[in-house]
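Tip: read the tokens left to right.
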């Protein structure tokens, strides 16, 4: 990971990222002017999908994400965080974790760059990752079609591989798991970290995931998820998990 100073802070970028990257690349307006916005995902805030080939022929689809606060504190500060050290900012920490996992061959989005703009004790931040081609989140998939028993088992094994390596995901939920034709990916590693594997945080991760499935089922009672599916996933997870 390399760094470059900007007028308002710093950009961290990975080895495969164009070195002429600028803060403007992290904003939707830059891509809108190039007619390069290909879509968006609207949750609490908007995440943008852009065609990065507009700037570099060999680049693919990118995802732009701004960091926003959640919960009650968002009423006080929508997108500002306390700045102590560049490496400890949420964007740089997430980019570094993604780079480590990507190099180790884990199914995560390819990391591109992070932008941090700080003034005094406060900072704002953005992240760019590569979009996983042909993927959709599990809620979107299960709202249309069921997964096979072997797919649920494959998902359980995939999560166990992350946990065996010590990957703590701060928000492991059904929408932060992507599925392609033959593979599962984990996304959104904000506040994630590498920890010494232990049953306490691993089980907390799994309990959070189960709650998310049940929550989504409560929203859409036709969602193709059942407690039997969870059992298939969890049994495969336990079998793959190192003691």
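Filled-in amino acids:
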């Amino acid at each position: 990971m390399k760094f470059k100073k900007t007028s308002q802070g710093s950009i961290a970028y990975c080895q495969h990222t164009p070195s002429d990257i600028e803060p403007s690349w992290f904003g939707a307006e830059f891509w809108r002017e190039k007619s390069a916005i290909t879509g968006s995902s609207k949750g609490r805030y908007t995440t943008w999908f852009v065609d990065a080939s507009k700037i570099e022929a060999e680049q693919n689809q990118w995802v732009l994400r701004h960091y926003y606060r959640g919960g009650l504190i968002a009423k006080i500060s929508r997108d500002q965080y306390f700045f102590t050290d560049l490496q400890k900012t949420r964007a740089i920490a997430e980019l570094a974790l993604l780079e480590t996992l990507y190099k180790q061959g884990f199914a995560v989005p390819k990391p591109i760059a992070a932008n941090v703009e700080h003034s005094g004790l406060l900072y704002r931040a953005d992240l760019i990752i590569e979009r996983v081609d042909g993927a959709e989140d599990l809620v979107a998939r299960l709202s249309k079609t069921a997964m096979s028993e072997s797919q649920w088992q494959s998902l359980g094994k995939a999560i166990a591989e992350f946990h065996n390596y010590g990957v703590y995901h701060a928000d492991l939920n059904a929408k932060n798991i992507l599925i392609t034709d033959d593979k599962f990916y984990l996304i959104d590693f904000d506040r994630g970290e590498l920890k010494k594997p232990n049953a306490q945080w691993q089980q907390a991760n799994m309990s959070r995931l189960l709650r998310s499935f049940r929550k989504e089922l409560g929203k859409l009672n036709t969602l193709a998820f059942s407690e039997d599916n969870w059992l298939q996933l969890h049994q495969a997870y336990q079998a793959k998990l190192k003691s």
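The longest strand covers residues 111-119. The CA atoms of residues 116 and 125 lie 5 Å apart.
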